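Hi W.,

Here's what went into the run:
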Amino acid sequence: MNIHEYQAKELLRDYGVPVPDGKLATTPAEAETAARGLPGDVVVVKAQVHAGGRGKAGGIRLAQSAKEAKHVTSEILGMTLRSHQTGPEGKVVRKVYVEAGSEIESEFYLAVVLDRSAEKLAIIASTEGGMEIEEVAARSPEKIFTVTVDPNVGLAAYQVRQIGFSLGFDMDRIAKLDPFLQALMRLFVEKDASLIEINPLVVTKSGDLIALDAKLGFDDNALYRHPEIAKLRDPEEEDAREREAKEIDLAYVGLDGNIGCMVNGAGLAMATLDVISVCGGNPANFLDAGGGADKDKVRDAFKLILRDPKVKAILVNIFGGIVRCDLIAEGVVAAASDLGLEVPLIVRLQGNRATEGRAILAGSGLNITPVETLREAGEAAVAAVGGRGR
Amino acid sequence: MSILCDKSTKLLVQGLGRMGRLHAKLSIEYGTQVVGGVAPGKGGQLIDGIPVFDTVREAVEDTRANASVIFVPPAGAADAVLEAADAGLDLVACITEGIPALDMLRAKRALAGSPMRLIGPNCPGVVTPEQCRIGIMPAQITRPGPVGVVSRSGTLTYEAVDQLSRLGIGQTTCLGIGGDPIIGTTFIDALGLFEEDPATKAIVMIGEIGGSAEEEAAEFIKGHMQTPVVAFIAGQNAPAGKRMGHAGAIIAGGKGRASDKMAALEAAGVVVSRSPAEIGSTLAESVPGLSR
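Here's what came out:
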């Protein structure tokens, strides 16, 4: 789960990480009041959406006065912000963060992530502040410095020095970096974060370290023990169908093809997309109905798939390990008749009680194409939409 | 021959909820020696004919168990792994899905130096055909033979095993290593075990998008393996930045794409099947003489 910059900065502030003063605003008038309450003349108005690349997209603007902040906010609020991270449809800006301007001397990059290969946490640092780290990694990987940290041991002083010297800091500045990094680590571990990205980390003209921008992500599997973090979820920022799927305990990802898919198991669901594509078709979605799929779940899944107007056929692919194919078949029949299904339906049932399941489908009187193998499933689905989709 | 478990394996079940009880029963029916269960506070009872203990240590002392399977809910699952290690078990398969990543990270670091082998979490477990079933796999689709199967997925493993069995190609051991970012036994560990097993004549490896475990496995295969490997990578059509069901299946920061993994494996001499429908036939073609 991702959160907004203003929420991230509030958390950072709680942990003692220096961030500029700022206030959230949802109207131009609020922005004006907020700007008046901030130190200094210059303020920055920042669109609050869950995507990077806001600056280039016109979502971050400087204002020299509170009046100008009001004007700038009126232009940003309601705009559809399009960056390389939002997709072509963009994101509508519903709120802005009004922040005191900073006297920037130099900019750096800092992040804390889970390092899957090292099986530790990793702190990533770079002198290339303000740039996207993927770009730096591709162009000048020597400018990225990484230390890995065992969470059972914690971040050691020598590691802070390694990071500090890699950024060209002297010992005075490293003394300021130490509490900064320790606070980030504490936040990561205590709140079960999945990502903390400070980009840029700024050294001000007075020599202080400030987190000028901040992106925080959290482990969905740990939200149950952090209700205060779960509360920060902004449903407006999530894809409507993915959100709905999550609420009924289905894993769904919308794609741009025309063959709807319902599968049990994440790996088989991915492989089903692959087989459709190998057969020359395009899947409309990824959908993992999970190990506990039953009649109700199947109906919910069908409803969700059919909400996508692009869907011209549905492929059901079930390999019953624990899941009983006869129960799935009952669900498919019920969903197809209840929902008045009009698109072709291709169903493959294998494994646990598959024979019983196939008999239920055959006896239903519904127009269902039964298939045996994964290859037949892909071929039949692609044939049903008349060959290559999109 | 097999890896990890066989007829002599004595299995405990940690967590006797609905799933734990169901799969304990199915494992017993398959011929697995399920010698006890662990459910704190229920020690001394018999559940479905299985003696229950309060702690893993007590269960091991009483039953001489050497392996366990964990069905404990996410909040307590990492703790169950540590308890199993403390009791001196050789092998633990953690089936639980949804464990916080940091819990597993801490547990994995704490297991460093422990002789216990952890499989999973978020995995279907392990089956040695006609000998031992640990976890939730539909063991009836397996058959004994010369191929080792290792996979990050559950149902896709069943699909691959089913394709093999239908072609008359049996398996030494079928192993699901799990779809989480932090797992106990990696591809490299599993490939190493199969390489040392004289009965395993070929290996099917099923990877998926996310992380770099397949690339690391490719390096290992290049440097350390003689046994032929056939692979499939799921998620060739997955969009970047989206989690595809498994917690670990996500292309992030330009890393973890299926195409990169397939290229790395091919460069290491692995035959990679483009289609998930042809995993079995690809193996049969590239390594003749496996079917019976």
